[in-house]
Amino acid sequence: xTETNHVWRLRKRPVGDITDDVLSLEQESIPExxxxxxxxxxxxxxxxxxxxxxxxxxxxxxxxVAINDPMRGLVCGTVIKSKNDLYKEGDIVSGLGTxxxxxxxxxxxxxxxxxxxxxxxxxxxxxxxxxxxxxYFGLLDITHPQAGETVVVSTAxxxxxSIVGQIAKIKGCHVVGLTSTDExxxxxxxxxxxxxxxxxxTEDLPAALKQACPxxxxxxxxxxxxxxxxxxxxxxxLNGRISTCGLISQYTATGEVAGPxxxxxxxxxxxxxxxxxxxxxxxxxxxxxxxxxxWMAEGKIKVKLEVVDGLENASKTLKKLYTGANxxxxxxxxxxx
Length: 337
Ligand SMILES: NC(=O)c1ccc[n+]([C@@H]2O[C@H](COP(=O)([O-])OP(=O)(O)OC[C@H]3O[C@@H](n4cnc5c(N)ncnc54)[C@H](OP(=O)(O)O)[C@@H]3O)[C@@H](O)[C@H]2O)c1
Known about the structure:
Blueprint lengths: L4 E6 L12 E6 L9 E9 L3 H6 L16 E11 L9 E7 L3 E4 L4 E3 L8 H23 L6 E4 L5 H12 L3 E6 L2 H10 L4 E4 L5 H8 L4 E6 L3 H8 L2 E9 L3 H4 L12 H5 L3 E4 L9 H13 L7 E5 L4 H5 L10 E5 L4
Helix pairs in contact: 2-3, 2-9
NADP nicotinamide-adenine-dinucleotide phosphate (NAP) binds next to helix 2, helix 3 and helix 7.
């Protein structure tokens, strides 16, 4: 094989925003699989807020990427050589890999993808590999929303948030989405069926929340932490539930992060606040995939992908997640299946 491998390596830990010297794109040789491994070519790379966590040495749920190692990512690729009966040449695999054209897969890192039927491999990977199950279990398993209850979700026009809101609508809830632009507000109310949308950047958030949630908040699906969490805490109803899915307002913070000012509401309103990491639900993935696929086929869940071509654009594209420049799921397309 004469082709070159392009590999993004982590060169330093970011402080605040991801600067151009954090990752470097190298030309390297293509690795050879040894017994038990396969070699696959990258088709799609999922860009996720957690990439910024893995680059840092903050307290986290996996080990951080080591300095000078290839950047870690959720990947989907095509097997081109195999030394393991689990993989055949031409199989599509997905799982945890790196930001590289060619990479080694093992049973611990990647699995063959199930047949995606009439759905394209990219659509299936983008929606079902991570964000769909995150929305499904993070909402249903942790907060048990009931018909008629009020559910508020932050990053409501993003990959996870847009699906959370639509599942809450399927469950008969009054759904309020928080996001940063009027266009995103229009999309979630007019196209996705949210009852209300609040532009948290231009509106007075506590007042707008009070108006959008006249009966208070029963469930808050938290993707951001910080001031938005505080504003929601203030309106939580008795026995309310908060699913702590993400804290994106803090991922690029420098220095100490302030705790919630309205922490007392957890006691006064007997709230349940629970964090989760989707990896813990791995064994139950089929349940989420079946439900979400069915709702998508019935038109009850709509998804939007924001697709950028070319692995060389991965570093600058990732930054979109931390400025709100994406709508829906942010994906890199390296080579279509
Ligand atoms: N627990 C888990 O296992 C798990 C799994 C997947 C994802 N997550 C978490 O879920 C959240 C959403 O992830 P996603 O993949 O769906 O990303 P996403 O929502 O598609 O993209 C990130 C969004 O975050 C918002 N944002 C960025 N900086 C912000 C800030 N300073 N304050 C408030 N909002 C900010 C922006 O939306 P706006 O325009 O609305 O501001 C941006 O579009 C993240 O916190 C992520 O870490 C957790």
